Amino acid sequence: KEHISEVEQFSADSTEALEAFRIKYLGKKGILNKYFAEFKNIPKEDKKAFGQTINQLKTAATEKVNSLKSNLEQSVKASSKYGDLSRPGEPMELGARHPISIVKNQIIDIFSRIGFNVSEGPEIEDDWHNFTALNLPEHHPARDMQDTFFVQTDPDILLRTHTSSVQVRYMENNKPPIRTISPGRVYRNEAISARSHCFFHQVEGLYIDKNVSFADLKQTLQFFTQELFGKSRIRLRPSYFPFTEPSAEVDVYWGLETETDYRITKGTGWLEIMGTGMVDPNVLDNCGIDSKVYSGFAFGMGIDRIALLLHQIPDIRLLSENDVRFLEQFRSSL
Ligand code: PHE
């Protein structure tokens, strides 16, 4: 009986202690076997009570060993430095590229195939690189085309309104021939709606060399629209930019090319996709390139609107809200 209460109170904090306990009671030379061997010497009238007691002891000891064993196993798992190795694995969630990055990479890829490199510059710019060098002197009315965020303490510092500023920096630091595209985020003080935001993304391009003509411009953009949209019908509409002369707006014909072209369901017709023109000689001279020797063309497009178009996204704000239900839809894209 004393043994039974000892067994009930026993607890073990290691497998070694538990094993010693098991051997002590249930081992070959253990307490239980000793009593079982004693059994034949017990007087007949006591046999029944004695037998019951040792059976009780045996059950108690066996149950104790089993329950302590499983407790110890649990705590070993929980305290293992690798955590519980027996838990089922959690699948690794793969992220998705942002649609802006997808389209930006496609554009970079297309232009890199015809010799353009990628240049980048600061988002916080000075007046010279964003405006003045681009033939937009102070008080020039065309500055109103791009509502600007200024840094409060210094009217010379602003958030760039276009990545043309990067092209100014590139021309200041590199000699022609120049073939570069400048992707990046730009800021304009505009009301936020489904169609426009106070920040968006651009890719601007610049090509400067001897004898660059408007025909080169047109052919380059034709190649680009064919590669990106699978559509080569473009239209150049006369336009105005202070930094190019002549200037044009580029429309791509976004419609059913053939009766079997069922990819595009809505938004057919001519869609404006970028601004372009021959770089104004003043801009070349401002940036240290001799306009009597060199000429070139520039172009600029908004990545966000192209992403809306290519992926049939109805609202530009989805691009900056970080809603994973939206973002994970691009898992299968490039
Ligand atoms: N910088 C112009 C804009 O942001 C785009 C442009 C670039 C137009 C180059 C012509 C030439 O609107």
From TrEMBL:
Mind telling me which InterPro entries this protein's record contains? aa-tRNA-synth_II, aa-tRNA-synth_II/BPL/LPL, Phe-tRNA-synth_IIc_asu, Phe-tRNA_ligase_II_N, Phe_tRNA_ligase_alpha1_bac, Phenylalanyl-tRNA_Synthase, tRNA-bd_arm
Q: Which UniProt keywords apply?
A: Aminoacyl-tRNA synthetase, ATP-binding, Cytoplasm, Ligase, Magnesium, Metal-binding, Nucleotide-binding, Protein biosynthesis
Can you state which reaction this protein catalyses?
tRNA(Phe) + L-phenylalanine + ATP = L-phenylalanyl-tRNA(Phe) + AMP + diphosphate + H(+)
Record's GO cellular component terms: cytoplasm
Where would you say this protein principally sits, based on its record? cytoplasm
| BP GO annotations | phenylalanyl-tRNA aminoacylation
SUPFAM superfamilies named in the record: Class II aaRS and biotin synthetases (SSF55681), tRNA-binding arm (SSF46589)
List the CDD domains hit by this protein, alphabetically. Answer: PheRS_alpha_core (cd00496)
Q: How is the cofactor bound?
A: Binds 2 magnesium ions per tetramer.
Q: What is its EC number?
A: 6.1.1.20
Is Metal-binding a UniProt keyword of this protein? yes
Per its record, what are the GO molecular function terms? Answer: ATP binding; magnesium ion binding; phenylalanine-tRNA ligase activity; tRNA binding
> Per its UniProt record, what PANTHER family does this chain match?
PHENYLALANINE--TRNA LIGASE, MITOCHONDRIAL, PHENYLALANYL-TRNA SYNTHETASE
Instruction: From the Swiss-Prot or TrEMBL record, give the protein name.
Output: Phenylalanine--tRNA ligase alpha subunit
Q: Which organism is it from?
A: Poritiphilus flavus
